[in-house]
Amino acid sequence: MKPALIYYKENVFSQLDYFQNIRLATSGHTVDERFYLTFNDLSESYNKEEITAIFIMNTLSDNAIELQGLQMAHYIRIITRGEGVGKLPIFLIGSENITELLRLSDYSSILQTPAVELLPYSKEKVKNVIDNIHTYKHLENYEGYLKKTHIPQPNNYLSHHSITSEWSLYQWSKCLNIKSAIENHIERNLYYRYVTSQHPECGDKVTIDYPPYPSESESEKKRILIIDDEADKGWGELYKRLFSHYSNIEVNTLKGFDYASDTKEALLPKVKETIEEKPFEPYHLVLLDIRLLQDDFNKKTDFSSFDVINMLQTLNKGIQIIIVTASNKAWNLQYTLNKNVFAYITKESIFDKSCSKEKLEELLKQSVNAISKSHFLKKVAENEKKILDRLNDKTSTISVPIRKKMLDNIREQIEIAWIMLTNYRFDERYLRYAYLSYYQILELFAEPSPDMYIKIKNKKDIYCEDINGNDINCSEKLKMIYDKTWKGNLIQQTQGTHKEKELELTPYARIGSWMFARTTNRHFMTLLELNSTRNNNTHGGSSTSNIDLEKRLLKMMALIIDFMDNA
Length: 567
Hints:
The protein is α/β, with parallel strands linked by helices. It has three domains: 2-147, Rossmann fold, CATH 3.40.50; 215-372, Response regulator (Rossmann fold, 3-Layer(aba) Sandwich), CATH 3.40.50.2300; 398-565, no CATH class. It has 19 helices and 15 strands. The protein has helices spanning 31-48, 68-80, 98-104, 123-131, 142-147, 160-175, 182-188, 190-198, 235-243, 264-276, 304-316, 330-338, 356-395, 401-422, 429-445, 475-485, 507-518, 524-539, 546-565, and strands spanning 2-7, 20-23, 51-57, 90-93, 116-119, 222-227, 249-253, 283-288, 320-325, 343-346, 454-457, 461-465, 471-473, 491-495, 501-505. The chain has a five-stranded parallel sheet with strand order 2-1-3-4-5, sandwiched between helices. Strands 7-6-8-9-10 form a five-stranded parallel sheet, sandwiched between helices. Strands 11-12-13 form a three-stranded antiparallel sheet, with helices on one face. Helix 2 links the parallel strand 3 and strand 4. Helix 15 (429-445) packs parallel to helix 19 (546-565). It is rod-shaped and about 125 Å long. It comes from Bacteroides xylanisolvens SD CC 1b. InterPro entries: CheY-like_superfamily, iREC. This is Inactive Receiver domain-containing protein. Residues 40-118 form the Inactive Receiver domain.
């Protein structure tokens, strides 16, 4: 039985016959990989023949100041959780005294833990310890070791966000039973093993509860775009597995872009190209990380992802965006909320008390909800753009002041309606508010006024000016259509300001007369349906389902586009 000696270069101790020599592995790309391979050699020796103790040279690299021997000692304790070979007494050999080690090494806490001794660079002293090795105690209490230990965050990361992203990928992959490429890195990393020692993982099998997907849109493929600088490091694979539960959801990552070397000037055109690549298979949701480019890690705000948000909303503000990031900074959250980003999901921190299951289910819930809303909101955004384009054209050609004011009021109602729709995800009532805003746009076209388009003549006839400036009698046609569904008057008497009876057109009569006189697409039955829905939402009649209300709002926008062409 011999003690083991872990060393980097041949020295006076490695040439002695006292030890089972274990040379530090050099084939690993990182310190942790080299430690892991060396630990495997140590474990193999321990299993083959009983090792009595572990001696480690303080210097295990070409840079003596690194003092990696102290780090190796922690590695043995933590990776074994103080069991087996990890219980053996550890002796650190070097020319440095304890004061120097405490000052020079971030891993010097090992010297204050049980069953660890510091030895001078002396064959006689080391030989004396070996001769009396039976008198040295083994580690009896791993928790006692942990209480006196501090393992610093690795300094080869751009930021704490990189660690959080790796940890979250590892934990979420385990939930989804994915053999992630990050797994070996995490399980061999001293810092992560230290953290998991303090926060033991639950061995229970996790079952993800998938939210149902709305059946109304089941037949159409829904596409998600991942914009994340670590998409190729496992996140893309994770997202694809996460959403594979849904047969109609397709997940893609941003291709042809190098996050490590490319710039924002290259990023934005690539995102635009990807979004517009397949117009008949559009993207409905973008999962976006906050820090995308190398330059972002030197910033506290104004990240490249903010420019991506602005560009996506310029392309079509109905495309939903969910931020999935390691950043939990309040100002980043506030910025994205101001931009009407659908949700903000933080990746799982090492010290996060919420479990992976909760995080994944929240991401699924928000994503499914966002996609179901996106199909409708993208169409609203497309129609809104058509209306605004026509509005801008008409504003420059219409000279009658009251009619120009009408166009300004329409623009205002469109802005109000979109604000209502962005809040639809929080409260379904906002969809009804948006519907009423768009119906008010129809009414704005048909305001009865001497300088507007519609007039009442002979107290019973409704006239509307056609596109050639001629007054057209619309009463007979409107009455015929109206009486097929409802009985009643198109012109009503109301109490005037001076207690005199005044004549007022019903909303249907006003809008219908415009439709009859100024358009060729006379969808009177559609108008009756829209008018009935408007009345129910205003006066508390029979409720309309959200699906039907969405469809009718889109029908109404099509009417408004037609009306704009003839304003």
